[in-house]
Amino acid sequence: MFYVGICVGCSIACCECSVTVAADSVDCKDCGTVTWFGMSTLIESVINVTDRTDHSQLRLIMDNEDDIRRRELATLFRLLRSYAVENAEYFSVGASTGSWSDRLYSSCRQLVDHLDGGVVSGVDALLQTAPMFDYSRLQPGSGYRSMVTVVYKCCLHLLTLVRYIGVNRESYLFRAEHYSHELQEYVTVLGQLRACLYYLQKLVLYCMDGSLFPDENALSPQDFHTAEYLMKEVESLCQEAFYGRCLGFQVLVY
Q1: Which of 10, 42, 216, 225 is the 20 to 30 A CA-CA neighbour of 110?
Q2: pTM assigned to the model
Protein backbone atom coordinates (compact mmCIF):
# COMPACT_ATOMS: atom_id res chain seq x y z
CA MET A 1 0.00 0.00 0.00
CA PHE A 2 1.41 3.38 -0.98
CA TYR A 3 0.72 6.91 0.19
CA VAL A 4 1.10 10.23 -1.56
CA GLY A 5 1.47 13.42 0.43
CA ILE A 6 3.55 16.36 1.58
CA CYS A 7 5.86 16.87 4.53
CA VAL A 8 4.82 19.54 7.03
CA GLY A 9 8.06 19.41 8.94
CA CYS A 10 10.08 21.28 6.31
CA SER A 11 7.41 22.82 4.16
CA ILE A 12 9.70 25.04 2.11
CA ALA A 13 12.04 22.19 1.19
CA CYS A 14 9.52 19.43 0.55
CA CYS A 15 6.18 20.81 -0.52
CA GLU A 16 6.86 21.71 -4.12
CA CYS A 17 5.86 18.20 -5.11
CA SER A 18 4.39 15.01 -3.73
CA VAL A 19 6.51 11.93 -3.23
CA THR A 20 5.36 8.34 -3.05
CA VAL A 21 6.36 6.59 0.15
CA ALA A 22 5.55 3.25 1.69
CA ALA A 23 4.53 4.20 5.21
CA ASP A 24 2.29 6.57 7.15
CA SER A 25 5.31 8.36 8.64
CA VAL A 26 8.80 8.54 7.22
CA ASP A 27 12.03 10.38 7.91
CA CYS A 28 11.91 13.36 5.59
CA LYS A 29 15.07 13.50 3.48
CA ASP A 30 15.38 17.25 4.05
CA CYS A 31 14.50 17.88 7.70
CA GLY A 32 14.87 14.40 9.21
CA THR A 33 11.62 14.59 11.15
CA VAL A 34 8.83 12.05 11.12
CA THR A 35 6.10 14.46 10.04
CA TRP A 36 4.68 13.13 6.79
CA PHE A 37 1.01 13.70 6.14
CA GLY A 38 -0.14 11.37 3.41
CA MET A 39 -3.11 11.07 1.11
CA SER A 40 -3.65 7.50 2.33
CA THR A 41 -7.10 5.99 2.15
CA LEU A 42 -6.62 3.74 5.16
CA ILE A 43 -8.32 0.98 3.20
CA GLU A 44 -6.07 -1.67 4.72
CA SER A 45 -6.78 -0.38 8.21
CA VAL A 46 -10.53 -0.48 7.64
CA ILE A 47 -10.43 -4.00 6.22
CA ASN A 48 -8.35 -5.28 9.12
CA VAL A 49 -10.47 -3.58 11.75
CA THR A 50 -13.86 -4.71 10.47
CA ASP A 51 -13.22 -8.22 11.78
CA ARG A 52 -12.56 -7.19 15.35
CA THR A 53 -14.13 -3.82 16.19
CA ASP A 54 -17.39 -1.93 16.11
CA HIS A 55 -18.61 0.88 13.87
CA SER A 56 -17.72 3.58 16.38
CA GLN A 57 -14.04 2.73 15.98
CA LEU A 58 -14.40 2.65 12.21
CA ARG A 59 -15.95 6.10 12.33
CA LEU A 60 -12.96 7.23 14.39
CA ILE A 61 -10.63 6.03 11.64
CA MET A 62 -12.60 7.95 9.01
CA ASP A 63 -12.66 11.08 11.16
CA ASN A 64 -8.91 10.82 11.58
CA GLU A 65 -8.52 10.60 7.81
CA ASP A 66 -10.62 13.77 7.40
CA ASP A 67 -8.47 15.51 10.00
CA ILE A 68 -5.31 14.53 8.12
CA ARG A 69 -6.81 15.91 4.91
CA ARG A 70 -7.67 19.21 6.63
CA ARG A 71 -4.13 19.63 7.96
CA GLU A 72 -2.63 18.76 4.60
CA LEU A 73 -4.82 21.27 2.80
CA ALA A 74 -4.07 23.95 5.39
CA THR A 75 -0.34 23.40 4.82
CA LEU A 76 -0.81 23.49 1.05
CA PHE A 77 -2.83 26.72 1.15
CA ARG A 78 -0.37 28.39 3.52
CA LEU A 79 2.62 27.56 1.33
CA LEU A 80 0.83 28.50 -1.87
CA ARG A 81 -0.12 31.88 -0.49
CA SER A 82 3.38 32.51 0.84
CA TYR A 83 5.09 31.81 -2.49
CA ALA A 84 2.49 33.80 -4.41
CA VAL A 85 2.95 36.87 -2.19
CA GLU A 86 6.73 36.63 -2.43
CA ASN A 87 6.65 36.34 -6.23
CA ALA A 88 4.16 39.20 -6.52
CA GLU A 89 6.46 41.46 -4.54
CA TYR A 90 9.41 40.50 -6.72
CA PHE A 91 7.68 41.03 -10.08
CA SER A 92 5.93 44.24 -9.02
CA VAL A 93 9.20 46.13 -9.39
CA GLY A 94 9.62 47.56 -12.87
CA ALA A 95 6.82 45.54 -14.46
CA SER A 96 5.53 47.20 -17.63
CA THR A 97 1.90 46.78 -18.70
CA GLY A 98 1.38 43.69 -20.86
CA SER A 99 4.85 42.25 -20.24
CA TRP A 100 5.51 38.74 -18.92
CA SER A 101 6.56 40.20 -15.57
CA ASP A 102 3.25 42.08 -15.37
CA ARG A 103 1.37 38.84 -16.11
CA LEU A 104 3.29 37.02 -13.38
CA TYR A 105 2.61 39.81 -10.92
CA SER A 106 -1.11 39.96 -11.76
CA SER A 107 -1.47 36.17 -11.64
CA CYS A 108 0.17 35.96 -8.22
CA ARG A 109 -2.08 38.70 -6.87
CA GLN A 110 -5.17 36.99 -8.29
CA LEU A 111 -4.03 33.71 -6.78
CA VAL A 112 -3.88 35.28 -3.33
CA ASP A 113 -7.29 36.89 -3.90
CA HIS A 114 -8.82 33.53 -4.84
CA LEU A 115 -7.38 31.82 -1.77
CA ASP A 116 -8.47 34.54 0.64
CA GLY A 117 -11.73 35.28 -1.14
CA GLY A 118 -13.36 31.88 -1.06
CA VAL A 119 -11.19 28.87 -1.86
CA VAL A 120 -9.83 28.25 1.65
CA SER A 121 -13.14 28.87 3.41
CA GLY A 122 -15.10 27.00 0.74
CA VAL A 123 -12.96 23.87 0.97
CA ASP A 124 -13.21 23.91 4.76
CA ALA A 125 -16.99 24.22 4.55
CA LEU A 126 -17.26 21.30 2.11
CA LEU A 127 -15.03 19.11 4.28
CA GLN A 128 -17.38 19.71 7.21
CA THR A 129 -20.42 18.99 5.04
CA ALA A 130 -19.09 15.99 3.09
CA PRO A 131 -19.61 13.29 5.78
CA MET A 132 -23.38 13.88 5.64
CA PHE A 133 -23.42 12.88 1.96
CA ASP A 134 -21.03 9.93 1.98
CA TYR A 135 -22.07 6.75 0.19
CA SER A 136 -21.85 4.93 3.51
CA ARG A 137 -20.02 5.13 6.82
CA LEU A 138 -17.36 2.76 5.54
CA GLN A 139 -17.10 4.31 2.07
CA PRO A 140 -16.57 8.07 2.39
CA GLY A 141 -17.26 9.40 -1.06
CA SER A 142 -19.52 11.97 -2.68
CA GLY A 143 -19.46 14.80 -5.17
CA TYR A 144 -18.40 17.19 -2.41
CA ARG A 145 -15.29 15.16 -1.63
CA SER A 146 -14.56 14.95 -5.35
CA MET A 147 -14.73 18.73 -5.59
CA VAL A 148 -12.25 19.09 -2.74
CA THR A 149 -9.92 16.68 -4.53
CA VAL A 150 -10.09 18.70 -7.76
CA VAL A 151 -9.26 21.91 -5.86
CA TYR A 152 -6.41 20.08 -4.13
CA LYS A 153 -4.95 18.93 -7.47
CA CYS A 154 -5.20 22.44 -8.91
CA CYS A 155 -3.54 24.06 -5.89
CA LEU A 156 -0.83 21.42 -5.81
CA HIS A 157 0.04 22.18 -9.42
CA LEU A 158 -0.02 25.91 -8.67
CA LEU A 159 2.34 25.36 -5.74
CA THR A 160 4.73 23.55 -8.07
CA LEU A 161 4.56 26.48 -10.49
CA VAL A 162 5.04 29.35 -8.03
CA ARG A 163 7.87 27.56 -6.26
CA TYR A 164 9.63 26.82 -9.54
CA ILE A 165 9.19 30.44 -10.61
CA GLY A 166 10.54 31.67 -7.28
CA VAL A 167 13.63 29.46 -7.51
CA ASN A 168 14.43 30.03 -11.20
CA ARG A 169 13.18 33.55 -11.96
CA GLU A 170 16.70 35.04 -12.02
CA SER A 171 18.15 32.25 -14.12
CA TYR A 172 19.26 33.05 -17.66
CA LEU A 173 17.44 29.91 -18.85
CA PHE A 174 14.16 30.76 -17.13
CA ARG A 175 11.34 30.61 -19.71
CA ALA A 176 9.48 33.64 -18.43
CA GLU A 177 6.98 33.87 -21.28
CA HIS A 178 6.00 30.21 -20.97
CA TYR A 179 5.57 30.23 -17.20
CA SER A 180 3.69 33.53 -17.19
CA HIS A 181 1.04 31.97 -19.45
CA GLU A 182 1.09 28.68 -17.52
CA LEU A 183 0.49 30.42 -14.20
CA GLN A 184 -2.17 32.68 -15.70
CA GLU A 185 -4.15 29.71 -17.03
CA TYR A 186 -4.10 27.75 -13.78
CA VAL A 187 -5.05 30.79 -11.73
CA THR A 188 -8.04 31.19 -14.06
CA VAL A 189 -8.99 27.57 -13.36
CA LEU A 190 -8.76 28.20 -9.63
CA GLY A 191 -11.05 31.19 -10.08
CA GLN A 192 -13.68 28.98 -11.72
CA LEU A 193 -13.31 26.40 -8.96
CA ARG A 194 -13.80 29.19 -6.45
CA ALA A 195 -17.12 30.01 -8.14
CA CYS A 196 -18.12 26.34 -8.00
CA LEU A 197 -17.33 26.23 -4.28
CA TYR A 198 -19.53 29.28 -3.75
CA TYR A 199 -22.53 27.68 -5.47
CA LEU A 200 -22.01 24.33 -3.73
CA GLN A 201 -22.11 26.00 -0.33
CA LYS A 202 -25.43 27.57 -1.29
CA LEU A 203 -26.86 24.43 -2.84
CA VAL A 204 -26.12 22.20 0.15
CA LEU A 205 -28.62 24.22 2.20
CA TYR A 206 -31.41 22.79 0.02
CA CYS A 207 -30.25 19.16 0.09
CA MET A 208 -31.97 17.07 2.75
CA ASP A 209 -31.19 13.70 4.32
CA GLY A 210 -27.91 13.18 2.54
CA SER A 211 -29.35 13.67 -0.94
CA LEU A 212 -26.92 15.27 -3.37
CA PHE A 213 -29.79 16.92 -5.24
CA PRO A 214 -32.72 19.00 -3.96
CA ASP A 215 -35.91 17.01 -3.40
CA GLU A 216 -38.96 18.79 -4.79
CA ASN A 217 -41.22 16.94 -2.35
CA ALA A 218 -39.20 18.01 0.69
CA LEU A 219 -38.86 21.70 -0.19
CA SER A 220 -41.28 24.55 -0.57
CA PRO A 221 -41.91 25.68 -4.17
CA GLN A 222 -39.85 28.81 -3.59
CA ASP A 223 -36.89 26.92 -2.10
CA PHE A 224 -36.93 24.34 -4.88
CA HIS A 225 -36.99 27.11 -7.48
CA THR A 226 -33.97 28.70 -5.79
CA ALA A 227 -32.12 25.38 -5.77
CA GLU A 228 -32.85 24.84 -9.47
CA TYR A 229 -31.62 28.34 -10.19
CA LEU A 230 -28.33 27.61 -8.38
CA MET A 231 -27.77 24.43 -10.42
CA LYS A 232 -28.43 26.30 -13.66
CA GLU A 233 -25.98 29.00 -12.61
CA VAL A 234 -23.27 26.37 -12.08
CA GLU A 235 -23.94 24.91 -15.52
CA SER A 236 -23.58 28.35 -17.07
CA LEU A 237 -20.05 28.87 -15.69
CA CYS A 238 -17.41 29.23 -18.38
CA GLN A 239 -15.63 25.90 -18.99
CA GLU A 240 -12.96 27.14 -21.40
CA ALA A 241 -10.40 27.46 -18.61
CA PHE A 242 -10.39 23.67 -18.10
CA TYR A 243 -9.10 23.01 -21.62
CA GLY A 244 -5.86 23.96 -23.34
CA ARG A 245 -2.87 23.98 -20.98
CA CYS A 246 -4.94 22.74 -18.04
CA LEU A 247 -6.68 19.83 -19.77
CA GLY A 248 -6.82 16.78 -17.51
CA PHE A 249 -4.91 18.29 -14.59
CA GLN A 250 -7.26 16.60 -12.12
CA VAL A 251 -6.19 13.12 -13.19
CA LEU A 252 -2.45 13.70 -12.99
CA VAL A 253 -0.57 11.72 -10.34
CA TYR A 254 1.64 13.92 -8.17
Answers
A1: 10
A2: 0.73
